[in-house]
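Troubleshooting log. The previous run stalled partway through. Resubmitting the same two chains, unchanged.
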Amino acid sequence: MQVKIYNKGIYTIAGLSGELDEYAAKELRRELDEGLTLPSVKKNILFDMGGVSFMDSTGIGVLLGRYKLLKGLGKNMFICNVNAQMDRILRTTGIYTIMQKVSV
Amino acid sequence: MNKINKFEMRLSALSENENFARSCAAAFCLPLNPTLDEINDVKTAVSEAVTNCIVHAYNGAADKYIDMSVTAEEGGKLTVTITDSGCGIEDVEKALQPFYTTKSDEERSGMGFTIMSTFMDELLVTSEKGRGTQVSMTKFIRGARNVDSRTDSAAD
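Second attempt completed without errors. Output:
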C-alpha cells in the first residue's frame, strides 16, 4: 500500500494506492498519522482512493480511526474516487454519513 | 447430473495470505461467468472471513492454519467454507450484530459478518468456544444464467 500526502487548493490530499486489508493496515495507520499531523496540513483533508483496488472492513476501521483523530484536531475529512467495490462497502457500513464523498 | 467443481486449501493464518485467499476464490468462480460485481462480492466476503480467523480466532498467532474450501455447482451456486481451530465465538448471534466488536480499541469496525451476509446470499456461522469457528457462505452467481446463448460458431 502506498501513501502520498500533499497540499492542493483547499485540501491536504492523502492519496492511497494498493489493496487496503489487514496486511496493509498497520503500516498505513502509521504513515497517515505521521503525515496528517504535520503543521503544514490544512483544515480539510481529502482521502483520494483512486489507486485503491480493494478494501474490506479493516479499511473501514482505518478510515474511522483517522476520522476520530482528525476530528479531535478540528479538521474535516472527505473521500473521493472510490471504485464500485469500495462504494458498496462504504454504503453498507454507513460511512458516508460522517465522511462526505466529494468529486474533484 | 449436476456437475460440482471443488477445491480445498490450507494456509497459514498470516495477513499476507489474505490477498492470496480472496484471489483464489475469485479465480475459481470464473467458469460460472460472474459479473465483476459478483467477483468483488466474493473477494470481499472471503477477505472478511479470513481476517476474522487471523485477528479474532487466533489473535495474531502465526503458527495456526485456516482451511478454505470452495465448491462451484452447475447453475451458478458458489459455496465458500472457511474454518479455523481458534478460540471460538461465545455468542454467535451477538457477533453477527452490526458494529459489534470485541476489539474496539484496535479500530475494528465490527462490520465483518454484516458485510459477509450482505455481499453473499446465505451465511451460516457455527462455532464452539475453545474449538473453532466455521463460516459457510453461498452466492448464486446470476451471470452464469446468461451463457446459454454461447455456441461453437462464436469461435469461427
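Takeaways: Helices of chain B lie at 17-28, 36-57, 92-95, 112-119. Residues 148-156 of chain B have pLDDT under 50 and may be disordered.
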